[in-house]
Amino acid sequence: MGIVSGMETAKRQRLLQALAKHEWWIGLVMFVFGVAFFIALAHDSLNARVYVDENALMPGIASESFRGGSEAQTLGNQWEQLNTRDQAVSWLTDRLTSIGVEVYTQNFTAVFPFSGSQQQQTVHGTNVYGILRAPRGASVESIVLSSPYRLLGDGSDVQPSHYGVALLLSVAKHFRYLNYWSKDLIFLFYSEELVGMQAWTEAYTGTKLTNIQFSQLPGRSGNIDSAINIEMPSPHFTAIDLDTAGINGMLPNYDVYSLSWKVATSSKHNVPTGPFGEGVHHFADPIAHFRQNVYLMLRTASVQAAGLPSSGHGLLVRHRAEALTVRALPDAPYHKRYGLQDMGNILSGIVRSLNNLLEHLHHSFYFYILPNSTHYVSVSLYTPPLALIILGSVLKAISLWVVTGLKNESGDSQAKFAFGEVQRNVQLVLPAFLCSQLSGVAVYVAPHIGVWLMPSVSQAVAALIGLTLTAVVCIVLVPLIVMKFDNSNDCHNTQWAILHCFALVANTITLTGLSMMNFSLGLLFSIITVVPTRILRQRPNQHFLSWFLQLVFIVMASPPVVLWFGCLVYLLLNGQLASVSLASQLVETTVTLQNAILAALRHQYLTGMWVYAAVTLVLWPNWLLFWTTLWRPVVCTADVTREKKEQ
């Protein structure tokens, strides 16, 4: 900026004229290069190899003496005989008491909004946890070892994890007789999935983020330094899935992932480990290897963009507890099978390394994407491609600002480019921004209004109907209201070009900020919305086909359509649309979008998920600005045609 401002006036004019003339192609090239750059980062030569940045962890050095595999098998068989939740709580309490740790329980109640019935669904649950005090510490730090407990035959479609519960009890008994712990160990068994973990986390940290009602914890330990969540549906497995995705796209320190990966894949165990259980693939064809990397990178990004963790570890990440889920996969495509003994030793090795820490993990990255199990793409690598993708909107905004300074109300060109010497009419900006923001608030509260106005319909259906109708009303009313403030009779659409300029600036700021909090979600909206929002043209008497194409592109850039494409990509990457027809794919994607909207609505009250609020209060108003800008050329064309007929 300093270089440009220091140029002579003539050179500055030529530079701005060239920018205004060629910004479309420059922005398009930058967009294509940015997308290609991001995809190319999946290649092993362009990213970094997995490594442990914190030397104090020393993964795999300590001996692992866990021998409780057969006992865990017995405990798992006993769990299968439990029928009620009260029996499960009593059984867990008795086992922890026999081990010799401090045992406590916590009751909680959660109201599920927007349920499938006419009334809100109320869920009651009980968390059970035990604390093993560190013989060499003062209870100022702790490590959480958790597992969800799920009763077999309770009608839930969630995969059981009773062998994870059994293994955790067996590991607790093993750790009870070791004397080198410098941190307290908390063994947590939570019910009702994320709701139970959220209730326990809020009570432990003293925060209140949701509407869950819970009892206070009778026993506490120190600050949670790290956490490992265990899920084992079967006593045997062939691979391990290291799940790092947290709430709202947050991630734990990369050292937690690299530590777990190194322990599991060391020569002692040699278990295929990585994201989604994908171990190290050795492809003879480098193109096939690169294609697999792209697939895994997009799949991990799609999970992060959803903003909702698949297990309880993701809720602890918000409180800067470096947590992940170690999930055993019994049906991964590998030949060798492993058992509870192997998983117990892996867990023991991870906890032994975390126990060595003298300070909180801080050396490695908190922003990364995993293209495979042995490599990662850090924030310093994926930020430049995102900047290239978004920068086209900045160039378009500058071009519009320059062009609007070249024309006055009569359309005559001005000789000067100086920004302060040309009076621009910005009277449409404030009404448009105000109307779009109010529409965002209306869409945000629309599900509640729908439930209130339609008590005879299930809350989920009423919420979706209210959301859809409110969005349609906003789409119709906002352009009409903004047009009432346009009294300049400017057939060159200067005011609307300025509104387009401000909309581009607002969208750029929004996408940049969103990418800093949830990179994958910001990348999804950037790739789909940047090009359509740049193609708007404020030209008088433009051809109807040109205007209609702009209409199609703007609709494609709307948040509902972007989220629909996101659901489609998610289903394709997870192989859920592999053997169905095109019509079935469209229906399945639409149903997934509806379920995703309802999940986002519920979890903003149950887990503090902010994706729904970000879409309705920020991204939706931004899109409405572009939608409003689109309709001005049609009105102008009608005005010009009417004037010609009158003459």
Overview of this protein structure:
A hairpin with an 8-residue loop joins strand 2 and strand 3. The protein starts with a helix and ends with a helix. The chain is built from 20 helices and twelve strands. It is 53% helix and 12% strand.
Quick take:
This protein has 647 residues and is α/β, with parallel strands linked by helices.
What is the mean predicted local confidence, pLDDT? 85
The span between the termini is 49 Å
Low-confidence region ranges = 408-420, 633-647
What is the percentage of strand-forming residues?
A: 5-15%
Q: Using the CA coordinates, give the radius of gyration.
A: 28 Å
Give the CA-based shape.
Answer: globular
Number of strands: 12
The largest β sheet comes out as: 9 strands, mixed
Number of helices: 20
Classify the secondary structure makeup into a structural class. Answer: alpha/beta
* Strand line-up across the major sheet: 6-2-3-5-4-7-10-8-9
Helix content range of the residues, please? 40-55%
